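seq:
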Amino acid sequence: MYNNKRIGAVIAAAGAGLRMGGGIPKQYMDIKGKPMVVHSALTFLESPYIDTVIIVVDDNYDKRILGYLPDDVILVLGGTIRQDSVYNGIRALPLDTDYVLVHDGARPYISLEVINRVIENLKEDVCVVPCIKPKDSVRTKEGTLDRNSLYLVQTPQGAYVESLLKAYEKAFDEDYEGTDEASLMENNGFGAVIVEGDEKNLKVTFPSDITPCGERAGIGYDLHKLVRGRDLILAGVKIPYEKGLMGHSDADVVAHAVMDSLLGAMALKDIGEHFPDSDDKYKDAVSLELLLKVTELMEERLLKVLNLDIVILAEKPKLSPFREAMKDNLAQALKTDRENINIKLSTMEGIGLIGREEGIACEAVCLLCKK
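struct:
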């Protein structure tokens, strides 16, 4: 509520979004682990001035947003075109709602500042429209337009509910299809008030419009002692050698370093936390199978491997003949292309524990990104 006036928000998310590609409407595509339209709704819910949030949905995809939003968010089925859909949403507002903000579900980067700016300028006889100035020159075939008099229109657009409903009903009577709420209000003789928008509040239309979600990097390291009577397992590959690595599991230092790097990128502590050597169920465990469990944690967070760089430090045995098999095993366990994995082999030139052929170590650095 603002100035003793109840305010609702209607988010239009029933369109086809065909230009985006991807097989589903763009407003239901994932951004940072949530459907695009959910980001918009959550921002409106943060505003202390918004009393009701309604999302106008496509009934083929509405289940994609369930579970991300509180139960008091109202879902309303859309119509044939945006105008029909928004009208359905406005009609579903509580009867005591004074003003409504109408927003495009494909604008996930809306800010509280813009929402509140629209609310603070609401009046009964106007439509409040957030806009930004074009950076580039704009022209028609006839010539260049005066950029100083041009605006790029955004949403949410705010209006008095009763006035906006009249504007919609007049448009239906006249078979007039407006591009937004301001055009409908102006068609019914109302005015418009322009407020400052936000360049980040873009309408996602093409894949390039999605802001990068940010990559996550992690580092992992493991070292095990070489002993007789054990198999030498590296990245799930059994290496013919007179010694193997000592450990509670199969002591696969490559898999262990990779797991620690992935857990680090996800901020999930380390492998000791997830697969403790104090737990007998992990005795002689196949480390590549444990890596599959870490991959499941990545998938739950909608993350994938963008790049994995590994260095194995071993004086002996010679590991280059097994490099490609190790890459294949890791790619399969991580559900990524083998081209995303690099394995480097190095010795310690006779220096230290590894140089004395007493152990093998591995370091891994990963870069994860959203699917």
